[in-house]
C-alpha cells in the first residue's frame, strides 16, 4: 500500500519510523511518504494561509499549494488500476472506527491532507473529488489543533491491518472492536501479585471454559463501559 501525507509539520510523523509500521516501511510492505505542503508554494515566505472571505477569526489554508500537491500525488496514479482515496481529517467528518480502518486498509493509495488554522478552502475538497474518492474523517467529537495527530492515529490503525505488518494475525482477531465488543482482560505471570490473583479459570487448562469466561467478560465490559456498541 502507498500512503502519502501532506502537512506543514512533517516532523510530527517521525514516530511512524518506529515499531511495527517502521518495520513495514523498511520491508517495503508500506510505502509511506510524508511531504511538506510548503514545498508546493512559490513565494518567498512559503505562504500557505490567508484571511477568510466574509471575515471571521483565524486564517484559512490557501487552495493553490493544495491543488499542486494533489496534482502531483494523484497524477502518479494515472497508470494504476485505482484512483487514490483522499482523506482530510476534520472534526466535521464521519467518525473513524475499526470498520473505517478495515475499509481503508484495502485501498492501493491513500493521500492524507492535514489541515491547520480554521481549515482548508472548501474548493480544495471539490477539486480533490475530480482526482479520487474524498473522505472527511473525524477522530472523535473533540477539536484538535490540526489534522496531524488524527492522521497519526488513522495511519497506525490502518497500517496494522495490512497483511504482514502485524507478525501474528491472530492478535488482530482477538482485540477490541474486531467483533463489535471490547476485548477481554489479560493476565501474565506471576499468578499472585500484591495479593491479587489471576482468575482461576485461566489456570485451569480447560479451553472451553476459558473461551466462555472471556466471552462473558467481553459482554460485561461492553455493557458497562460502552452500552452504545450493543445497541447496533
Ligand atoms: N482536526 C481537528 N480536530 C479533529 C478531529 N477531531 N478529528 C480529525 N481531525 C481533526
TrEMBL record:
Originating species: Microbacterium istanbulense
Signal sequence region: none
EC id: 2.1.1.228
CDD domains assigned: TrmD-like
A molecular function (GO) term: tRNA (guanine(37)-N1)-methyltransferase activity
Ranges of residues in domain tRNA methyltransferase TRMD/TRM10-type: 1-231
Family classification: Belongs to the RNA methyltransferase TrmD family.
Keyword set, alphabetical order: Cytoplasm, Methyltransferase, S-adenosyl-L-methionine, Transferase, tRNA processing
Quaternary structure and interacting proteins, as annotated: Homodimer.
Binding-site residues for S-adenosyl-L-methionine, renumbered to this chain: 115, 139-144
Catalytic activity: guanosine(37) in tRNA + S-adenosyl-L-methionine = N(1)-methylguanosine(37) in tRNA + S-adenosyl-L-homocysteine + H(+)
Function: Specifically methylates guanosine-37 in various tRNAs.
Protein name: tRNA (guanine-N(1)-)-methyltransferase
Cellular localisation: Cytoplasm
Amino acid at each position: 500500500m502507498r500512503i502519502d501525507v501532506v502537512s506543514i509539520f512533517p516532523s510530527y510523523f517521525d514516530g511512524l519510523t518506529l515499531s511495527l509500521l517502521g518495520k513495514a516501511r523498511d520491508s517495503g510492505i508500506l510505502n509511506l511518504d510524508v511531504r511538506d505542503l510548503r514545498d508546493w508554494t512559490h513565494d518567498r515566505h512559503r505562504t500557505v494561509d490567508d484571511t477568510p472571505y466574509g471575515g471571521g477569526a483565524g486564517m484559512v489554508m490557501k487552495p493553490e499549494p493544495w491543488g499542486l500537491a494533489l496534482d502531483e500525488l494523484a497524477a502518479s496514479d494515472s497508470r494504476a488500476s485505482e484512483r487514490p482515496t483522499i482523506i482530510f481529517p476534520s472534526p466535521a467528518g464521519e467518525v473513524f472506527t475499526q470498520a473505517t480502518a478495515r475499509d481503508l486498509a484495502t485501498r492501493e493509495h491513500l493521500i492524507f491532507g492535514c489541515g491547520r488554522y480554521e481549515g482548508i478552502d472548501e474548493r480544495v475538497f471539490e477539486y480533490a473529488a475530480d482526482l479520487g474518492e474524498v473522505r472527511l474523517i473525524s477522530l472523535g467529537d473533540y477539536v484538535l489543533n490540526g489534522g496531524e495527530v488524527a492522521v497519526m492515529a488513522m495511519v497506525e490503525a490502518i497500517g496494522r491491518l495490512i497483511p504482514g505488518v502485524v507478525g501474528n494475525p491472530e492478535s488482530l482477531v482477538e482485540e477490541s472492536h474486531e467483533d463489535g465488543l471490547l476485548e477481554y482482560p489479560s493476565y501474565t505471570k506471576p499468578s499472585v501479585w500484591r495479593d491479587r490473583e489471576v482468575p482461576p479459570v485461566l489456570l485451569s487448562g480447560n479451553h472451553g471454559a476459558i473461551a466462555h469466561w472471556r466471552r462473558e467478560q467481553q459482554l460485561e465490559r461492553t455493557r458497562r463501559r460502552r452500552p452504545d456498541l450493543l445497541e447496533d
